[in-house]
Amino acid sequence: MKYDIAIITVIKDKIDLPGLETIGQILRTANLKICFVAVDNDSKGFDAYSLIKKYIPAAVIVLRDKNYGMGHSSNRGAAEVEADYYFFLNPDTAIKDLNLLERLRDFLREFPVIGIVAPRVSYPDGQIQETCRRFPKWYSPIAQRTSFLPKDFLEQHQYKFLMKDFNHDKRRMVDWIQGSAFMIEEKLFKELGGFDQRFFMYYEDVDLCRRCWLKNRPVYYLPDVELLHAYGKGSAVKGNLIKGVLQNQMARAHIISWLKYSLKWLGKKI
Prior knowledge:
Elements: E1 2-11, H1 17-29, E2 34-40, H2 48-55, E3 60-63, H3 70-78, E4 82-89, E5 93-95, H4 100-110, E6 116-122, E7 132-133, H5 140-145, H6 151-161, E8 172-174, E9 176-177, E10 181-185, H7 186-191, H8 204-214, E11 219-229, H9 241-247, H10 249-264
Parallel strand pairs: 1-2, 1-4, 2-3, 6-11
Antiparallel strand pairs: 4-10, 5-11, 6-10, 7-9, 8-11
């Protein structure tokens, strides 16, 4: 069976129940054929299969024997079903607009040149999350995570990188969007080869968007629809930088992915 849309979520040790409830409601009420695919990266704290099936009985669930990372497991989920469009979604999200998937799909159908479209993402308190960004510079992680550089330079970098210089209430083309929530046509996703599996965590979304742009398929931010994201900043390092990196697996993954991304795109332009 081929679906109109496949929602693909990768789980590791946590999933928000309000998000499962809204997805279940969407599947029951939508006029589209939608499949929910959950890829569990060997969660230890709960029985992912039983929990998800309780809320979404028709869910397709892939249980993995270890943590394969975000990009690798997203590709694995996409390989489970055929669908016209894939909607990649973090497990700590809740969809406010039950027509969100249909509206994103309709946008891509109306403008078929567009490669990726992403909705507005907000924190639970209603504050907007800067999910659309400019492509990072080689020094972006240093500017984000340290205070080694001049304060004015750091503030200017963050202002530009997070695109705080434009009205987030207006739709527009952007360099890239975070992988917490976005839609892409199945055909294009397969043409691109999916996510680059060399990135265990972080930068797989930046890389995918760059490859979209190389195919002249723009990335679009669409604030007309919205979802909530309980963003955890798992790679954040507090206190001593070196000690923090050694103790924080996600921080190490972020740095490794930054190095891989920098080497892959060194000297290349869009």
